[in-house]
Each structure stands twice: as C-alpha cells, then as structure tokens.
Amino acid sequence: GVANKCLALLSKMFNMAEQWGLRPDGSNPCRHVKKYRSKAHERFLSEAELGRLSDVLAEVERDGIESPHTIAAIRLLIFTGARRDEILSLEWSHVDFDRAMLLLPDSKTGKKSVFLSAPALAVLADLPRIAGNPFVICGQGAGAHLVNLQKPWNRIRKKAGLEDVRIHDLRHSFASVGTDGGLSLPMI
User: Fold this and answer.
1) Is the pLDDT confidence value at 47 over 90?
2) 174: part of which helix (H) or strand (E)?
3) Cβ distance 115 to 59 under 8 Å?
4) How far apart, in whole angstroms, are the C-alpha atoms of residue 116 and residue 7?
5) Mean pLDDT of the 115-129 span
6) How confident is the model at residue 1 (pLDDT cuts 50, 70, 90)?
7) Does pTM surpass 0.85?
8) Contact 44, 169 (CB under 8 A)
9) One-character DSSP codes across 93-155
10) pLDDT above 90 covers what percent of the chain?
C-alpha cells in the first residue's frame, strides 16, 4: 500500500513537471511501473472481541491508565461508526443532546449528521468538559483536541488480544452490527 501511494505521488510530481515545462512531454519514469495488487482490508470484530475490548476499556478507565478522553474517543468510534478524525475534532457545539445527533459541519463527505445511540449519548454526557476547550476529545495542549490515538489504541488492543485490529476496523464493525440488526445501508 505504501509503495502504491509513493508511486502515485511520484507520478503526479513528474506529470506536473511536464505540465510546467520542466520535463519533456511523455517522460514520466513512473508511466510503466506496475502497482502492487492490493486486497481490501475488511476486519470486523466478533461479539466476543467487542466484549474483550469493552472489558479492557473499563479496566483502563477504572485504573486511570488512559485518559478519559482517549477512552471516550474509542467508545464513540464503536458506538457511532464515525471516522477517527470526525470524533477527534468533534466540538461540543456540534453535539445536539436534544435530538441525539452529531451535526458535523465538515466531514470527508461534507456536512453530515450522525445519529447517537443511548450508549453514545452516555459517553458524551459522562465526559468531563475542559474550560476553554471547545473540543469533546481534549488533547494535551490548552484548547486543543487529541491528534494521535494510535499509541493508546495499540496498548488497548494488545491488552484485549486484538493484535490485527486497526482503529478503522471499529467503523467496519459498527456497520456490520447494524446490518446484522436489519438496518439499511442509508440508515447505517
């Protein structure tokens, strides 16, 4: 995957150099380089795996091993199916408790609403707000949101015995649970 991304970047750079007259037309050396075959990576957590993850989140929360905002971020990813950056950059002004929705002004696909389940609402209601910080998932700096969930996620998933699970797989699992529950794709 990384090699394919590098190839795409280099190819774009050489194409731009041709357009700007810095290289002769048709001289892109990436033109005949074949990409590696990529396979779709779809991983869904089983009910037992979700249970283990839930137990570990409760344990690290109880023991104070991880920040409450880190734990809340992972729980919100599980309960909403939102993208990682949508949760990490979520502001309190985007949370509508009355309508049980997140009103995201700018996501990967544009403006969108995310419906909140009772567990997701409970996570938000229990999360401490930091004075002067507009973000739901607060980071280390004053007024900043958490930017890197990878290190705590690696610790938590290893403790739960989920070595091959990526953060994005929580989104896949949310969709899988929804379809198993009879929800349509537009609803999910």
Assistant:
1) no
2) helix 168-180
3) no
4) 40
5) 93
6) confident
7) no
8) yes
9) GGEETTTTEEEEEEETTEEEEEE--HHHHHHHHHSPPPTT--BSSB-SSTT-B----HHHHHH
10) 60
C-beta separation of 56 from 65 below 8 A: no
135 backbone dihedrals φ, ψ, rounded to 5°: -90, 145
- Dig out the tokens for 146 from the structure: 């958490």
Is pLDDT of 186 > 60?
Answer: no
Q: Which residues of 72-111 are buried (b: 16+ CB within 10 A; e: fewer)?
A: bbbbbbbbbbbbbebbbbbbeebbeeeeeebebeebeeee
C-alpha R_g of the chain: 20
Q: For residues 56, 60, 66 and 72, what is the CA-based torsion angle, rounded to 10 degrees?
A: 60
Measured CA to CA, the distance from residue 91 to residue 84 in angstroms comes to 14
> How far is it, in rounded angstroms, from Cα 188 to Cα 173?
11
- Which structure tokens are listed for 141? 């700096």
**Burial (Cβ within 10 Å: 0-12, 13-18, ≥19) of residue 60:** buried
Tell me how far apart the 2 most distant CA atoms of the chain are, in Å.
Answer: 63
Q: Which two tokens stand for residue 47?
A: 């009910």
